[in-house]
Structure formats: C-alpha cells, structure tokens
Design a protein that fits this description.
Structural class: alpha+beta
Largest sheet: 2 strands, antiparallel
Strand order of the largest sheet: 1-4
Strand content: 15-25%
Number of domains: 1
CATH topology: Alpha-Beta Plaits
Distance between the termini: 4 Å
Order of helices and strands: EHEEHE
Shape: globular
C-alpha cells in the first residue's frame, strides 16, 4: 500500500487523524493533513482505507 495526498483539497476536517493517527496528522497552523507514513505496515491498512473513504474532500488516495 502507498498513500498520496492532495493537500490543496484538504478541508482540515481531521477525520483521517481520528481513524488512523499513526499514519496521518494535521499541521498546527491550518489543520491541513500531514502524512506520517506513506507506506504503512499491514496492520494499518484497514484504518487507512477507512480514512480515505470518509475524507470529506477526497484528499487521500490509496494505491494497493
């Protein structure tokens, strides 16, 4: 699994951080998503897929 982000689409809702805090964070100044691990371990894959699915701005892309 590889993750890419479109930061310009991010609306800073923070849902990704709530679902997968080991993989996503938010910038302090504007809340935009920060990718902590672009190739997370297998035990994080389900959470990453959920984070991408619930992102209101569709800013997270998961490449299997």
């Amino acid at each position: 699994m590889k993750i890419t982000l479109e930061e310009d689409k991010c609306c800073a809702a923070g849902q990704c951080v709530l679902v997968a805090p080991e993989v996503f964070d938010q910038r302090d100044e504007d809340g935009v998503v920060v990718l902590l691990d672009a190739a997370p371990p297998a035990e994080q894959h389900e959470a990453v897929r959920e984070a991408a699915a619930i992102c209101p701005a569709a800013a997270i892309q998961v490449h299997e």
